[in-house]
C-alpha cells in the first residue's frame, strides 16, 4: 500500500536503464574570423578526419551483429519444438484437423468451458506463459479460482475489466472508466488493487479530466507484472494446477485405451 513498490524489479537497474547517456561534444574548429582566429587549415583537416573516422566506426557497429546467429537459431528451434504439438499442420490432432476435414469438433472442444471436455494438451499450454493462460477462457477461469484462494482475485478482475474497456464503443467508455475506478482504485473501493501512489495519482487525474479507454494503462501493466512475477509462478507450482493437469492426463489415457479396444 502507499508508495511501496511490490514488483520484483531491481530499482538500481531500472534507474540505469532510464538514465540518459551523456554524449561527448566534439569541438570543431573554424579557420579565420573572430570565432577562432588562431586555427590553421591543418588543424581543421585533423578534425574532419576525426569525424570521418567516427562515422566509419559507427557504420561498422551497424554491420556488427549484437546477437550470435547460433543463439537466435537455438531460440527459434526451441520455440517451434515447444509449440509443434499445437500446430495442426505439423501434428495430427485428435479430433482431426478441421482445416483438412469437415469435422468441426476441434473448434467446439477448444471453445468449451466444461472442465470435463478440456483436453490435456490445452492445460499444458497454460504453463508456457502467463499470456497463454490469460488467452484461454478456461485458463482464466481456473487461474481466477486460484487467485480467490490466495485473496488476490481482484488483480485478475481489474486486468480483465481494463481489457474489456479497450474494446467498448466510445459512447460507453466514460461510464465504464468511472465504474472501474470506483470498484478498484477509489477510496473505499469494493475490490481495491495494490498500486503505488504515483500511478494512483496519475490515473485519478486522467479519470477526472479526460477519461479514455487508455487511462488505466500504467495500473494495468503494474498489476500484470504482479501476476506474472508472483501469482503465476505460484499457480504453476500449486497442487490445484497439478491435480487439474493430472486429471486431464487420466482422461486422455482412458480415451486412448477405449479407442485401441475399438480398433481391435
Low-confidence stretches: 21-26, 252-264
Number of helices: 12
Q: What is the CATH superfamily of the domain at 112-236? A: Regulator of G-protein Signalling 4, domain 2
* Strand content range: under 5%
Which CATH architecture of the domain at 112-236 would you pick?
Answer: Orthogonal Bundle
Number of strands: 0
Task: Report on the architecture of this protein.
There is one protein chain. The protein has 264 residues and is mostly helical. Among the domains are: 35 residues; 125 residues, Orthogonal Bundle (Regulator of G-protein Signalling 4, domain 2), CATH 1.10.167. Helix 7 packs antiparallel against helix 8, helix 8 runs antiparallel to helix 9 and helix 8 packs across helix 11. It is extended, with a radius of gyration of 28 Å.
List its traits:
G-protein_gamma-like_dom; mainly alpha; RGS_subdomain_2; single chain; signal transduction inhibitor; Regulator of G-protein Signalling 4, domain 2; extended; 264 residues; RGS domain-containing protein
Helices, strands, pairings?
Blueprint: H1 11-18, H2 41-63, H3 69-83, H4 105-111, H5 120-125, H6 130-135, H7 137-149, H8 153-166, H9 170-185, H10 197-209, H11 217-237, H12 239-263
Helix pairs in contact: 7-8, 8-9, 8-11
